[in-house]
Every structure is written in C-alpha cells, then in structure tokens.
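Let's sit down with a protein and look at its sequence and fold side by side. Go ahead whenever you are ready, and we will take it from there.
>
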Amino acid sequence: MTIREIAEWLGGEVVGSGIEARPEIERVAKIEDATTGCLSFLANPKYEKHLDTTNATAVLVSRKLDLKKYEGQASCVFIRVDDPYLSFLQMLKRLSPSIDPFTSGIHPTAVVSPHAVMGNHVSVGAYAVVGDDAVVGENSKIGEGCIIGKHAQIGSDCLLYPHVVVYHQCVVGRRVILHSGAVIGSDGFGFAPKPDGTYEKIPQMGIAVIEDDVEIGANTTIDRAVMGDTRIHRGVKIDNLVQIAHNVSIGEHTVIAAQAGISGSTKIGAHCMIGGQVGVSGHIEIADHTALMAQSGIHFNIKEPGKSYFGSPADEARKAQRSAIAVKMLPEMLREFTALKNKVAELEQRLSDKQ
C-alpha cells in the first residue's frame, strides 16, 4: 500500500515531503527495528527518541504530537491519526494476515459422540473429544486434543486452541477464545475439616458460564461453582495462568493480567483492571472501574467505583506509594536518628562533666 492509501484508509493526515517517491509499505515493525518499506507507530512518549533515528518509511503518530522539531530532520513520513496504537493494529491485521491453525472439518481421529449437536461449518482437530449431548455452535473451531464434556455448550464462532478442556454441563458463549491448556469447570477448592484432622470433599454441583466475547489465556482455570454458577461476564479478557475460584463473578469488560488469583464467591465489578500477581480474598465485592495494581493483596470490600489500589495489604494507590517511598527512606532516617542520638548523648555528657 502507498502512504496515501494508508492515510485515507485510516482517516489520517500525511505530514512530510516527497510522498510520491517513497517506497510502498509492505510490512509493520516496531519503531526501533523498522527498515525501509515498514510502517511503525508512536503511542508511548518514551519511544519518541527513536523518531530521529528510525528507518521506517512512515510512522503513525497522534494528532496532538508537535512535529515541528522533526521537520527536515526525520527521514520518515508521519501519518497523524486519532489513536496511533489502534490504527497500527488495523494495519497489522491488513498487512500481516494470520495463518489459520485449525483443521478444516472433522479430523478422522476426533471422537464426536453421535448424540452431540454440531452446528454448520464446525471444525474438530485430531484426537479431540466431544461428549454425549454436547452442543457446538456453527463456525466454531475445536483444536487438537480438546475435550468438550457431556452436556457442555459451546456457542458459535468460538476458537478453542489445542488441549482446552470444557467440563461437563459448562456453558461457553459466542465468539469466545480459549487458549491452550485453559480449563473451564474444574472442581472448586472446597474441603470441610473433620474432627479426626482429615477433610471431607465438598461436592461442586454447579457449573461455569463464560459469556460472549470473552478471551481466556493459556493454562488459566475457571472453577465450577458449589451451587449455581461461576460467571465470566461479556467482554472479559483474562491473561495466562490466572485462577478464578468457585462462585466468582467477573463483571463485563474487566481485564485480568497473568498470575492473578481470585478466591471463592468474590464479585468483581465491570470495567475493572487487575494487574499481574494480584491476590483477591474470598467473599468480598469490588466496585466497577477499580484498578488493582500488580502484586496487590485485596482482603476488603471496595465500594466506591473508579479508585486505584496498590500494595499488600493494599491501600489507595497514592497513599500506598507514599508509604513505599517512606519505607525506602527509613535506613537513611535511622542513620540520621542514630547520629543525632549520639550527639545528644555527647552534649549531655559534657553538661554532666561541667557540673
């Protein structure tokens, strides 16, 4: 594509000279790695230093960025857009079409129950299993080695990458993406202590429900409920290696980063952001639009929406960050205190000697 074609397609504005003489854009690349024929982007200010040195043919930038200082210096052409990152993603899809890794049709080694209900244009990979009375919606793709349990339901246009397991009776909505090793509906961690010091397993009789347009990362586990359901609401995005316990509810369009853990019966609101390695204790509620920063430990209800929390145990982010700074200052403060204490002791000794 030419630079002008890209600008028109994105609704952008071209800034720079010699546009017609520039080579066509053939691929996309990071700003520091780009070469001739590459389209790159600038969304994070800390990468602005590369605008002077990049070899990209064109760079997507924000309409708000001041480009006067680069006039006559930068070797690239700029395309002003509203959101450089989203525009770059659009071009990434257009210039770098992905390979479809899924089998076409039903592989000969797949085991599909004669009692399963399979929609039109479903594909099932090698050694996958679809159990009795399971339902798979049209255009869904089941990767190699996946297990769809008895009475489970998979909606239309879903992608289940290799070795996904959807336990019996669990429900997956439409346009859901489940990455390799994800487990939907395993037993919740429920054991009742007995007088003799052993444990009685608590039956996990409920299900797990994944609503429409959810994406769940590799090796993430969503436990089934003791009763009722564990529910991941519409549009939620969950990273790899996340643990969601029984009877948890995750609100719409919440995002959860890797290695976070949500304990049983907790309710997370809509549009929340949960950082990596966050731990949330059980039976609490988190308000909408809450941000939990990486490695925070949350053990209390958060009732007011729109706030950020940090630390373990967590506090409101600004207070927690001030506390963290104060803790770093403690060794120096201790040295100063010790020196002051020694000076006071010396002065007291001198006064005592004069008396």
The longest strand covers residues 58-62.
